[in-house]
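Here is an idea for our session: we take a single protein and study its fold together. Once you have written the record down, we can walk along the chain together.
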Amino acid sequence: MDKPVIQLLINNEEFLCRRHLKHIEKKIIDESTKDFNLSKVSAQDLSVGQLLDQFNTLPMMATYRTVIVRAVDEITKNNEAAKKEAATLADYFLNPCPSTHIILITSKIDKRTTLYKNIVKQGNMFEFKPLYADKVPAFVAAEAKAMGLVLERGCAEQIAEVVGLNLMSIVTELEKLAVYVLPEKRVTLKQVGELICFATVDNVFLLSEHIACKAYAKACEVFDKMCEQGEPVVKTTSLVITHFRKLMLLKSAQQECLPESEWAGLLGVHSYFIKKYEQQANAYQVPQLKRVYGLLMEASVQLRTLSVSDGTVFETFLQKVCVG
């Protein structure tokens, strides 16, 4: 290795970022001297001066040492103290220590700043973003292939539908499937159904039916049941958003006279489930679907920003669509 590795990781998808970090650690860290030459620190706990001390410390019995810094957001805050710290750190990257690998992890950074520009001049930037719902089946298929599994048509879509957008949970379910089908490698829809609980998807369909009928009490019962089953409210909201997005897509396809044979591909679901989606889409008018979707997106934002309980946010959403 001719020069030290310097990387800036913009982390908005923890699983993908963690996987990349694990890969780079394996590549650059010498296990025999790891105890002496690996520092994992947080910018929340150290000043920039202390960080520079870490960067400038010489390796022990090795060519390089590695410093991994999390919470770099603390240095990029928009206040005078942070700006001074950022300027000092930016100057360091004009001439970084030649014997220190540096991995900086942040959730956001202004790409117009001197700090950002100096870092990428010396190294690389990797940005990890959450996958859109329509990209998750491809992720499932790729992970399954890497595990040596052969998924029957429709399995990737169904796993994505049931598990949602949490990539770590998807990998966990695939690992369970790999053990479940041993000594075989082929995975069928039936086996996915046997191992991964389909109750969540059934509950989402039930919620949609009750919302269409404005049956507030019944919708609350289904929501309470999902909470009792351990489903996080954020995940439930995400699944319901995805469900109504598909209903709107199907409604649009019907209006544009798209052949029924193309509906499954458009929605990213197995053809087996299309009839259920069609029945639900027919229960809604387009303005009603748009209103429900808009209120869902509003609830999704509130879950991330308000200090009230998650359950209260979702119950308020149900009240608005069923009663209001």
Summary: The longest helix spans residues 233-255. Residues 299 and 317 are 6 Å apart (CA to CA). Strands lie at 6-11, 38-42, 65-70, 100-106, 124-128, 150-151, 186-187.
